[in-house]
Write a structure and sequence with these properties.
CATH topology of the largest domain: Tetrahydropterin Synthase, Chain A
CATH architecture of the largest domain: 2-Layer Sandwich
Largest sheet: 3 strands, antiparallel
Radius of gyration: 60 Å
Structural class: alpha+beta
Number of helices: 9
Number of strands: 8
Number of domains: 4
CATH superfamily of the largest domain: Band 7 domain
Length: about 300
Amino acid sequence: MDLLGLAGWIILAIFLFILFSTGIRIIRPIEKGLIERLGKYKKTAEQGFHWIIPVIDNMVKVNITENMVDVEPQRIITKDDLNAMVDAVVYFKVVEPKKAIYNAQDYRRQITSLARTTLRDIIGKMTLTEANSKRDDLNGILEKELDKQTDAWGIDVIRVELQRIEPPDDVQQAMNNVVIAEREKKAAVDFATATETKADGARRAEIKKAEGTKQGLILEAEGRAQAIIQVAKADAERIQRINTSIREYFKDEAQMYKKLETVENALKDGTKYVIDPNTEITNVIAEKMAGIIPIEKQENTKVERE
């Protein structure tokens, strides 16, 4: 009897251990647990250790972090009668696990179905061009609409992102051709502008070069003119000094002879001078040309003096 009693106690202990172990539940920080007793909601379990009565109690764990559902591609007829291929991604978070479990049979699948329906309704009222150009606005509209409709499920829709809005292949090819044509047109305009700029630069360079050459010639001519004036002034001053010396150091016929010699030296190279007609040099030249002052007289004078 003692052995049978000991065996019974051991079996009972094993049963109780199994029963206790079976009822252990651990809730992670990213989860919440809904505890049901005999099919009826009892409470919501927070993170940590929990024990439920096996068979009698049941726990349903719900992820409360940000989740994502992928809305599979679907064809939507746009306002301009084009079959656009559209897909999207919905990011959401369960904020009330009780509503998410008891108010929706499968909230993930139902969010996907609701997103597909909402996409058809909104994009169907827009042209393909409008839908592509207003993606940010569409994302905002979809987010607000889905968030309002999933509020009864205890779900917060964080954001919606349209991944693609593609037209049919033939329309896509036509749009690509338009884009290529626009790029070629822009490239042609840029090339023409660059060519015009280059030609304008070359023209400006030639103008600057011609202006530089012209300015150089002007400066050179002015320099030559200044040089001629300075040379003429120097020659005039030299002649004036010679005349002064002749008047001071030569007398009578010697003075006349010196004047003639000076005139001869001044005019022998074809140099032209402007001389005041009232000067003695002019009178001497006139007399020489008229033959009034012969050379022989100078020689006789010299013989007589000897």
